[in-house]
Amino acid sequence: MTATRSLCTAALISWLGLVRLVLPAAAQFAPPPIPPHSAHPKATPQSISAGKDLFAGTCANCHGIDGSGANGPNIQGVGATLGPEGLYATIRGGVPGTGMPPFATLDDATIWKIVDYVGSLGHENAGVATGDPEKGHAIYRSSGCATCHTIDAQGGDLGPDLSHIGAQRSIVSLEKSLTDPGSNLPLDTSLQERSAYPAYLVYRVVQKDGKVLEGMRIDEDSFTIQLRDSGGRLRSIQKFGVQKIEPEPGKSFMPSYKEKLSATQINDLVAYLSSLGGAQ
Questions:
Q1: CB of 189 closer than 8 Å to CB of 26
Q2: Going by fewer Cβ within 10 Å, which terminus of the chain is more open, N or C?
Q3: Where do runs of H (alpha helix) occur along 59-132?
Q4: What distance in Å separates the CA atoms of residue 176 and residue 269, rounded to the nearest whole number?
Q5: Domain assignment present for 125
Q6: Rounded distance between C-alpha atoms, residue 100 and residue 94, angstroms
Q7: Beta strands in the chain (DSSP E)
Q8: How many Cα atoms within 13 Å fall on the side-chain side of residue 182?
Q9: Cα 222-224-225 angle, rounded to 5 deg
Q10: Among candidates 193, 190, 200, which has minimal Cα distance to 158?
């Protein structure tokens, strides 16, 4: 592999940091459309080991053999944020606007092995669902998840479309979303572009009369800001009557299911969500 290819994931963390700092403009850094590709084979100890060897020859100069950083940034745990498809898209398509180039010459089998190794960094057994998807589907229905989420055009639109969530998020990330949703808001632009609410960030508006409104920002101009509250109601607020507008990082309208569902039920629900989607 050439030295250029050693940048395989070098821009990954810097891109994520840029998304955090310039969230409204994040869509311009979205990877280009990825051509059809093979489905992600189930990660195995053998594929992770092979990926480690490939990573050593192409990426370790920047990130260290364990992904903890060298000349480039630490990428441990990034697989839990992007999931297998997100890692594949970043390696294959690059990230326009950063130093991450596309690697169109790498075949799918090679990329998936690298994905498996990067996905394992900092998260043992990442990507392995052990619950019962059928029981998880029943829990999804009985817990009212469809009130806010859509699967195959059925459901609400307050939260993200989950039709392909299993291909976009790792097992670790899915479980974290259910137990501590505010700490696991989406960072990648591919999910944001399918929503009217970039990263589902909640805003707090304090009006001059002391009234407080919260909602996900839909749009904003010099005179007004439009929010959608936790009940799905749209609110257009005139700025001349506003004292303060501020984001609330780490806050989510999605409730935590840590105390509402047992560990077994959460495991089953994660298994169901991880079964949704596939190769694009």
A1: yes
A2: N
A3: 60-63, 78-93, 108-120
A4: 12
A5: no
A6: 5
A7: 150-151, 154-155, 202-207, 212-220, 224-228, 234-238, 242-247
A8: 11
A9: 110
A10: 200
Asked if residue 102 and residue 31 are part of one domain, the reply reads yes
* Cα-based angle 131, 136, 140 (whole degrees, multiple of 5): 150
What is the domain extent for residue 221? 202-247
Instruction: Identify the sign of the CA torsion 80, 126, 177, 76.
Output: negative
* Mean pLDDT on 244-270: 92
Write down which residue in 72, 97, 120 finishes a domain: 120
- Side-chain half-sphere CA neighbours of 80 within 13 A: 20
**Residue 183 neighbours by CB distance under 10 Å:** 12
User: Contact, 118 vs 49, CB < 8 A?
Assistant: no
Q: How many domains does the chain have?
A: 3
Q: Which residues contact 40 (CB under 8 A, 6 or more apart)?
A: 84, 85, 88, 112, 115, 167, 279
How far the first Cα of the chain sits from its last, in Å, is 27
- Let me know whether 108 and 8 are in one domain: yes
Residue that has been written with the tokens 């395989």 in this structure: 8
User: pLDDT tens for residues 219-255?
Assistant: 888 999 999 998 889 999 999 999 999 988 888 899 9
pTM beyond 0.70, yes or no: no
Please indicate, yes or no, if residue 279 is contained in any of the structural domains: no
Question: Which residue bears the tokens 């690298």?
Answer: 114
